[in-house]
Amino acid sequence: MKNIPHHLAALATTLWVGGLWAIGYLAAPILFHGQPDKQLAGMLAGQMFEVMGYTGMFCGTYLLLHRALTSGKAALREPLFAVIAAMLVITLTIQFGIQPLMAELKTRALPLDVMQSAFADQFKMWHGISSILYLTESLLGAWLAVKTFRVRSDA
């Protein structure tokens, strides 16, 4: 029973990092490739990214608390803690900073698709920034997964 918090941390890491990779690099590209209506594909991808953002906030918060309770004040000096914190900051930045800006541009573009409007360049810029941050978070997540799930020689 004492290992339950550790097991939950492993599951949270798996859910967060696996979800980032599955949504960002499998589901969304397949959706855009297979859906002829790119506006619909974008809306559906946006919904998946939003759910993944909230998932990341929950998992990241749990992982930070787990590290803090496991290591105490020393957690603040651990690379693992710093990576989790950076991932959480990126998640919050995308979720509450960039995505609302992009949604506002889409609304202002109506009745046109944002990519056919005067706001297309701004939308592309914010989409690019969001993509770079998402890639950064994904790579940090890969590092986190590798460091979290080290292979034990006695296993």
Automatic annotation (TrEMBL):
The chain crosses the membrane at residues 7-31, 51-68, 80-98, 125-146. It is found in: Membrane. Pfam families: DUF4149. One of its GO terms (cellular component) is membrane. The keyword Transmembrane applies. Keywords: Membrane, Transmembrane, Transmembrane helix. Residues 11-108 form the TMEM205-like domain. The keyword Secreted does not apply. This is Membrane protein. It comes from Ferrigenium kumadai.
